[in-house]
Design a protein that fits this description.
36% strand, alpha+beta, 8-stranded mixed sheet, two-stranded antiparallel ribbon, 10 strands
Length: 184
């Protein structure tokens, strides 16, 4: 399965993908924080953390919040599902507490809603968890500042399923009694 292309098994297509969501949130974070901050996907193997201040993003939850909707095109059925998603942000660096304050304040402001609506509308910010300071010890056994928060947002997930439809019918009339004489 190649998630970044939106492909799933048997020709089903899911949008937006996790990759789409990571890309959108990363772009928003880069638009509100200092240019020196790096924003990376969390839970990557064999990757050293960036030097300096950085944010690690990790999708951690999905919750259905409405009944499915269905629509049709000429070649597919599209199932629409409203989903509350949660992403954990871990912000590392000496000014991470201050930067996290900016993130949480703007997530709950029209700034974030306007940003996501104007850049494709794949998600709508809902709320944040309480900000927490984590005791992070680096590889040199030194404490580093790390602040964490969970961002909640809503997405409209769409699953496109290939489907055949009959768009033309040919009807032939036959005389039933002649073609299939009654048996007595």
């Amino acid at each position: 399965m190649v998630e970044s292309a939106g492909d799933t098994a048997d020709g089903y297509i899911l949008t937006p993908t996790d990759t789409d969501i990571y890309t959108a949130v990363r772009a928003w974070l880069l638009s509100i924080l200092p240019g020196s901050i790096r924003v990376v996907k969390g839970q990557t193997n064999r990757s050293a953390p960036p030097s300096g201040s950085f944010i690690a993003m990790t999708l951690i939850g999905r919750e259905r919040i409405a009944t499915n909707g269905t629509e049709y095109t000429d070649t597919q059925r599209i199932i629409t599902e409203q989903v509350k998603r949660t992403m954990q942000l871990d912000l590392f660096g000496s000014t991470s507490g201050d930067m996290m304050q900016v993130v949480t304040a703007l997530w709950r402001d029209f700034q974030a809603s306007d940003y996501f609506r104007n850049s494709g509308g794949i998600l709508s910010p809902l709320y944040t968890s309480s900000v927490r300071q984590l005791g992070f010890i680096n590889g040199a056994k030194q404490y580093e500042d790390c602040w964490s928060v969970d961002l909640a947002f809503q997405t409209t997930q769409k699953i496109s399923i290939p489907q055949q439809f009959a768009d033309t019918l040919s009807i032939d009339l036959i005389e039933v009694d002649t073609t299939y004489p009654p048996q007595e």
